[in-house]
Amino acid sequence: MTDIDKAMLDPTAVFRTPEEVLLREDMTREQKVEVLRRWTYDARNLEVAEEENMAGQEPDILDQICRALHSLDAWLDTEHSPPTKQGGL
Description:
mainly alpha
């Protein structure tokens, strides 16, 4: 499995920060956007865990991901996000 394939499944297994995704020259823009959107989903799940007194990632990770997406002229996919506690409408 390549790093890119691994990142598509678990971004934090490959990248320490969203900015590292942006620096990868061997990834297309679309791949970077997909990894960052996946990371958003995972970060929201961790926020839910934190609400339930479980440990999670640093609190501003969602802001970092959003800034990285914006730098790619991409946004969170709220149109296809279900209304859940993790996010969405």
